[in-house]
From TrEMBL:
Protein's name according to its UniProt entry: Cupin
Basic residues: compositionally biased ranges: 196-208
Alphabetical list of CDD domains matching this protein: cupin_YjlB-like
InterPro entries the UniProt entry points to: RmlC-like_jellyroll, RmlC_Cupin_sf, UCP019307_cupin, YjiB-like
SUPFAM superfamilies attached to this UniProt entry: RmlC-like cupins
Region Disordered, annotated ranges: 181-208
Native source species: Bradyrhizobium frederickii
Length: 208
């Protein structure tokens, strides 16, 4: 998301009631994510090494004290994923060539296309968390009117937004240079992302 959205969210966090470490631990579920591999489809590069990860029901959002978006935002921040924003997902295909991205569903439901038109459409609901390695194409297909996600990024990397196929040659070079994050956005330093992204991905057919 643009810097202005991240600044707006930073100002919001200064005044909202956020869970402390103990409360946050009680709200996060240890989940093994599904790994989704996407190959370059000729339009969207996707990531040659790291799979997208989908954590189902990773966060308990039934707290009466803390809002769902606050819980997810606090979780990402506690695990070293910052520069957060809260909004919906763009409805056009785009990807980030210099940074990884995580999105947690705080409210509503949606169908999100990942990996480009030859990828997969994922149905997501509150508590789900989706980690997109640099280069992974994504867009919103449809959503409920109340759909809200919290997005964030690891400490290393620069936000950019790629939509033009003319950017592909340079974008592919940038994607290859994006380093693995130091922490899992859901479960921190011991989280499954670090194991799932430890080795290069196996060969797979386009889109799967």
């Amino acid at each position: 998301m643009p810097i202005k959205d991240q600044v707006k969210n930073f100002a919001r966090k200064l005044v909202e009631d956020r869970p402390d470490a103990a409360a946050l631990r009680a709200l996060v579920r240890a989940r093994r994510p599904a790994a989704l591999h996407f190959r370059d489809d000729g339009i969207v590069p996707n990531n040659p090494k790291f799979p997208a990860l989908l954590y189902r029901g990773a966060v308990k959002l039934t707290s009466r004290r803390f809002r769902p978006d606050v819980i997810i935002d606090t979780m990402f921040d506690a695990n070293g994923w910052g520069r957060s924003w809260r909004d919906t997902v763009y409805d056009f295909v785009h990807y980030h060539s210099q940074i990884h991205e995580v999105m947690g569903v705080a409210r509503g439901s949606a169908r999100i296309e990942c990996g480009g038109i030859k990828g997969r459409i994922l149905s997501v609901r509150p508590g789900d968390v989706l980690v997109l390695p640099a280069g992974t194409g994504h867009r919103l297909i449809e959503s409920s009117r109340d759909f809200l996600v919290v997005g964030a990024y690891p400490q290393d990397g620069t936000y950019d937004e790629c939509t033009d196929t003319r950017e592909r040659p340079d974008a592919i070079k940038r994607i290859a240079k994006v380093r693995k994050p130091k922490t899992d956005p859901v479960l921190g330093r011991g989280g499954p992302l670090l194991r799932a992204w430890r080795k290069e991905r196996p060969r797979s057919r386009p889109g799967g």
